[in-house]
Amino acid sequence: MNFFLDTLRVILLSFWYNIEAFIHLFVPRRRKSVAGEVVLITGAGSGIGRLMAQEFAALGTVLVLWDINQEGMKETAQLAKECGAIKVRFYLCDCSNKNEVYRVADQVKREVGDVDILVNNAGIVTGKKFIDAPDSLIEKTMEVNTMAHFWTYKAFLPAMIAKNHGHLVSIASSAGLIGVNGLADYCASKFGAVGFAESVGLELLAIGKDGVKTTIVCPYFINTGMFDGCQTKWPTLMPILKPHSVAKNIVQAVLTDQVYLLMPKSMYIISALKNILPMKQGILLGQYLGAFNLMDTFRGRSKQE
Ligand SMILES: NC(=O)c1ccc[n+]([C@@H]2O[C@H](COP(=O)([O-])OP(=O)(O)OC[C@H]3O[C@@H](n4cnc5c(N)ncnc54)[C@H](O)[C@@H]3O)[C@@H](O)[C@H]2O)c1
Questions:
Q1: pLDDT, tens digit, 9 for 90 and up, residues 249-279
Q2: Are 225 and 47 in contact (CB under 8 A)?
Q3: Which UniProt keywords apply (predicted)?
Q4: Which atom of ligand 1 is least distant from the CA of 97?
Q5: Which residues are 48's β-sheet partners?
Q6: Domain-wise residue ranges, the chain
Q7: Among the CATH numbers 3.40.50.150, 3.20.20.80, 3.40.50.920, 3.40.50.720, which is that of 32-288?
Q8: 122 CA distance to ligand 1 middle (Å)
């Protein structure tokens, strides 16, 4: 293409995309219907996974729940039915085990059908300094928080590509955008999850499969129990998030095909600043925001809720 025409096209479209984004600060985006669609949520036995199941259930979806916590899933399934799910099936599946993911995925395809919305939500945290963390826990963190996403995509993405229809949701973390003292393996796993979801999303666009959407979710601490004991230094700027509103925001992002969802909103500014500030100023800001001490009081979940 002619250099001047191509450059003009980019300038005009850039201008338009910015106006469009500005307009949508005030005018809500149109929500797509997911009624009748099959939604698979990993780690659905508690926390955000359970709440997202309830939110999707209320939209008239078919729910497929995966977890290693059978009792938790049973409770989620009951709640989802009460919220209006068309059908709920739950499966014990250890997402850290590739063969188990493939085996249970085949079972889901036989018993329920192709998955339309895949929510990779299962996650764990070691909560130890890198040097003190046992190798087995570090490996497990990478397997659950990152590698599991590879295997679920391998299992369910081909059908989405064939239909050019689907949605891939990655529940990552703000720790997938900014490193945190005391969370090295967790941050590595979440950076991996973000990079993986972002790259596959681009692969899909490059092959013209723009009907398969991606949503990457990066929340700060959520009050689910996973990070029990952790405190935030400036709660007004960086509040500990409420699980219900996080689940609602995630489902809203899926319905409006939003690619990145950072919570709270201040995370958009903080993650942008991280990439443009001089390093010393970034560290100063990190200390000011308490990022160096976030994990000092970490206890984690004391029992399965
Ligand atoms: N709680 C937070 O502060 C926070 C912040 C940012 C991101 N996140 C992420 O949100 C997601 C949900 O976290 P949550 O706060 O609801 O925690 P949670 O502990 O309540 O839920 C995690 C679920 O994953 C399941 N799980 C763990 N290992 C599994 C495995 N191998 N296979 C299948 N399921 C497994 C657990 O049984 C549990 O039901 C996680 O990916 C987490 O990393 C949480």
A1: 999 999 999 999 999 999 999 999 999 999 9
A2: yes
A3: NAD, Oxidoreductase
A4: 31
A5: none
A6: 32-288
A7: 3.40.50.720
A8: 4
